[in-house]
Amino acid sequence: MSRSFPASAAGAQRHKTVVIADDSVVVRGLFARWLGESGQFHVVAVAGDGETAVAHAGRFKPDVMVLDLDMPGVDGATALPQILKESPHTGVLLATTLTERNTRIALECMTKGAMGVVSKPDSRSGLTLSLDFRSEFLLKLGHIAETRIRPGTLPPDMDLDFAPAGPTSLRQLVSVVPRYLVIGASTGGPRAVAKVLFDIGDGLQDLTTIVVQHMPPVFTASFAEQIASYIGVPAREPFDGERLGRGTIYVAPGGRHLGIDRRLGHIVARISDSPPVRFCRPAVDVLFNDAARHLGPAALGLVLTGMGTDGTEGAGALRRAGAAVIAQDEQSSTIWGMPGSVVRAQHASSIIALDDIGAAIGGLVRSWPQ
Q1: What is the C-alpha separation between 100 and 98, in angstroms, rounded?
Q2: Model pLDDT for residues 177-218, shown as the tens digit of each residue
Q3: Residue 256 DSSP class
Q4: Residue numbers annotated as active site
């Protein structure tokens, strides 16, 4: 159930290499044709089951792999950790029909190393005719491949004095105890967000935590449920106008902006269907700009792993309002796009590795008398 493609063509090595793993011959052929027509990719092999996908990962070490969840024998979710073990630098894009079950499994896969997901149309005709799906598929695959080949780095002459690194410096960067933690994340974010919140520990009870994670609409409610189950702290999507309280984690609903407003002296959720910001909805910039306006130094901004520049403008607004902003460091980021952009713009108060962020925030919150 597999086929290999020789990479002998003169221009093949200039393209991003791809393995397609899907049990449908039609889907494999269609994806291969789209990738070939794009002029950016070279399909080195296809697989109809997870076992073959793992073997191809070890043999070809592709830049990216398109991975379906529903395959005979070894399914995509089971194959994923083996694929990443065989080829740690391969970026995996899940392409699957998002049933309720698959949504939950895909979210788990994204906490275990998958870099993104696209929802295949339910019917074969829908798959063939959907220009929106084809555009999304190629765009996400391109972002993943580009990032894996050329990860972001700081210019060699960049002066990092403005952004002291490490958790011990965080206390001196804030003038008042932050009571609102505003988080932005994208690719690689589900795992990073969950780890940070878990590591904050009891400090979450003294924080109102608001998360913008770039996700399709069907994912965010499940993401909130997983956080609540994993951490033991209430987590959910807020409704428009809801008063936001301490000890609860609020997750932006997929496909809608989540900001905040001040009404009758209380901070409330502001849910909006306004146009995407920097191609994102929900957008981190929307939340951060509102937090700067209504919370000032009572907010603490955190920008985690993700593609693009969403959050950079809002991080600048937070800094100007007197709030501190933490950026995840490059080494621990799946993709150092969003946090790297914040650092380059000199909006980061501190650059901290993922393993240290939660403890630093928890220690900061507990360092003030209650």
Answers
A1: 6
A2: 899 999 999 988 998 999 999 999 999 999 999 999 998 888
A3: S
A4: 186, 214, 310
Burial of 39 (0-12, 13-18, 19+ CB in 10 A): exposed
What pLDDT does 202 receive? 94
Residue 15 sits at φ, ψ, to 5 deg, of -95, 160
pTM above 0.70, yes or no: yes
Question: Per residue in 297-329, is it b (16+ CB within 10 Å) or e — as a string?
Answer: bbbbbbbbbbbbbbbbbbbbbbbebebbbbbbb
Q: Give the integer Cα–Cα distance in Å for 341 and 327.
A: 9
Report, as ranges of residue numbers, the positions in the chain whose pLDDT lies below 70: 1-14, 123-129, 147-169, 368-370
The side-by-side arrangement of strands in the sheet containing 299-303 is 235-236, 249-251, 208-213, 180-185, 299-303, 324-328, 350-352
Decide if 281 contacts 307 (C-beta within 8 A). no
CB count in 10 Å sphere of residue 9: 11
Lookup: tokens for 268: 């409330």
What are the boundaries of each domain within the chain?
2-149, 167-366
Alpha helices in the chain (DSSP H): 25-38, 50-60, 76-86, 100-111, 124-129, 131-149, 189-200, 217-231, 284-294, 312-320, 338-344, 354-366
In CATH terms, the fold of domain 2-149 is: Rossmann fold (3.40.50)
- State how far the Cα of 224 lies from the Cα of 190, in Å rounded to an integer: 10
Task: Give the CATH number of domain 167-366; options: 3.40.50.300, 3.40.50.180, 3.40.50.1100, 1.10.443.10.
Answer: 3.40.50.180
3-state secondary structure 52-76: HHHHHHHHHCCCEEEECCCCCCCCH
Alpha-helical (H) ranges within 150-299 are 189-200, 217-231, 284-294
As a whole number of angstroms, the distance between CA 82 and CA 66 comes to 15
**Tokens standing for residue 18:** 């791809």
**Do the Cβ atoms of 297 and 321 come closer than 8 Å?**
yes
CA separation for the pair 350, 325 (Å, rounded): 7
